[in-house]
Design goal:
The complex is a heterodimer. Chain A is α+β, with helices and mostly antiparallel strands. Chain A is built from 4 helices and 6 strands. Chain B has a 6-stranded mixed sheet, with helices on one face. Classes of the chains: A alpha+beta, B alpha/beta.
Chain lengths: 134, 118
């Protein structure tokens, strides 16, 4: 596992590289929760972020070949949390979002997008803290 | 999954703590503590089926107050286990939930299916 951090122009950016294995899902969620908490997100917003980040990473891991790596990028700026997860894709096509996953993303983040490419998959999540928006 | 504490307390794979407690009249309370995600969802499902088979359970009450996190893999495990238990003649309900679990069940419109207390 490797991690890098960068703070420029009020933007915190942290990159973490972990094995694409379900054992590391908790770490992805903890990093999201810690960074968002530091940026003033509420407890409810942190729970939503943990749920969305975990769900996105689980989808990517499920569609990845063995021994691949999952690259996690967290960016926080003025109450805006952006999360990108990218992972190599296996030959099997990626499972689409089932109704539960789609409902989770719709309820927990402001925007989300899944990029399903032949050799790699990526997930982007965006959430704005309500406290910052008021 | 290994038994400890008089066979009542179980520590499951994936870091889940599972407690199975008979309450009489065929009702068994299964308490789960930990985080339910793809790493631990199988252990969660196994715990429910183990509770149903270890005693002649007519009903399983699931206490999820100690679950700090659950995602759609946990929901799928819950739904599959619920169907399996129904086929065995065992009813599955949820007696207590944490806020993250309540939120997940409400988001996915499954709170009523498991009689989640309000």
């Amino acid at each position: 596992m490797t991690a890098q951090g960068d703070t420029r122009a009020d933007t915190d950016c942290v990159e973490v590289l972990v094995p694409a294995d379900a054992r590391f899902l908790r770490l992805a969620r903890i990093a999201a929760s810690a960074l968002a908490a530091d940026a003033g997100f509420t407890v409810e917003e942190l729970d939503d972020l943990r749920l969305a980040v975990g769900e996105a990473c689980a989808l990517l891991i499920e569609a990845s070949p063995e021994h691949s790596e999952l690259r996690l990028t967290y960016r926080v700026n003025a109450g805006r949390f952006e999360f990108t997860a990218a992972c190599p894709a296996s030959n099997d096509s990626m499972r689409g979002l089932d109704s539960a996953a789609a409902a989770i993303f719709a309820a927990t983040v402001d925007d989300y997008a899944l990029t399903d490419a032949p050799e790699s998959n990526a997930f982007i999540l965006v959430k704005q803290s309500a406290a910052e928006g008021t | 999954m290994t038994a400890a504490n008089g066979g009542d307390q179980l520590t499951g794979d994936g870091g889940l703590d599972v407690s199975i407690r008979p309450n009489g009249d065929g009702v068994i309370t299964v308490s789960i503590c930990g985080e339910i995600d793809p790493y631990s969802a199988d252990a969660f499902a196994d715990a429910l089926l183990e509770a149903a088979t270890s005693a002649d359970a007519a009903q399983i009450e699931l206490d999820l107050a100690g679950v700090q996190f659950m995602d759609s893999s946990g929901l799928r495990a819950l739904l599959v286990a619920g169907d399996d238990l129904t086929e065995r003649g065992t009813r599955l309900s949820i007696c207590m939930v944490s806020e993250p679990v309540r939120r997940l069940l409400e988001i996915t419109d499954l709170a009523d299916r498991f009689d989640v207390p309000r």
